[in-house]
TrEMBL record:
Provenance organism: Pteruthius melanotis
Gene Ontology molecular functions: oxidoreductase activity, acting on the CH-OH group of donors, NAD or NADP as acceptor
InterPro entries: NAD(P)-bd_dom_sf, Sc_DH/Rdtase_CS, SDR_fam, SDR_family_member_7C
Protein name per Swiss-Prot or TrEMBL: Dehydrogenase/reductase SDR family member 7C
One GO BP annotation of this record: intracellular calcium ion homeostasis
Pfam family, one: adh_short
Keywords noted in UniProt: NAD, NADP, Oxidoreductase, Signal
Length: 154
């Protein structure tokens, strides 16, 4: 069956709205066959210069966002005993490099979660994959004076 596309906006770092968006998707289409988690935020800076607030924002976008969306879609896949979940992550989920501590930590956490999920979902015939590309060109906002978000890459 063919469905008309539907655009649903989602800020993956806003954990509070993710379950509602997942519910909207499931109400519209009835199921999700393939979930591709591909949103990400990164920041470049020395550990001592990155605020805890920014560390948390990076963790929300790169770890809590994808797992919250996955957990919202997962019961539907389990009940149907089919589905595929993909995490587009980063090589920095396997190795850390200087000036990327918050980003690397969030990507390491995501790898750990999805590795465990893969093992748990085997009995339900749900495939869980993690893709860890090397460095990619990302959109970057130009810095604004005194704005901590200036160093965020999306």
């Amino acid at each position: 069956q063919t469905y008309a596309p539907k655009l649903i906006l989602l800020d993956i770092s806003d954990i509070r709205c993710i379950r509602d968006v997942a519910k909207e998707i499931l109400n519209c289409y009835g199921c999700v066959d393939i979930l591709i988690n591909n949103a990400s935020m990164k920041v470049k800076g020395a550990v001592q210069s990155i605020s805890l607030e920014l560390d948390k924002k990076i963790m929300d976008a790169n770890y809590f966002g994808p797992i919250t969306l996955t957990k919202a879609i997962l019961p539907n896949m389990i009940s149907r005993r089919t589905g595929q979940i993909v995490l587009i992550n980063s090589i920095q989920g396997k190795i850390g490099i200087p000036f990327r501590a918050a980003y690397a930590a969030s990507k390491h956490a995501a790898v750990g979660f999805f590795d465990c999920l893969r093992a748990e979902m085997e009995e339900f015939d749900i495939s869980v994959s993690t893709v860890n590309p090397t460095f990619i060109c990302s959109y970057h906002r130009q810095p604004a004076p005194g704005n901590w978000e200036a160093s965020i890459w999306k």
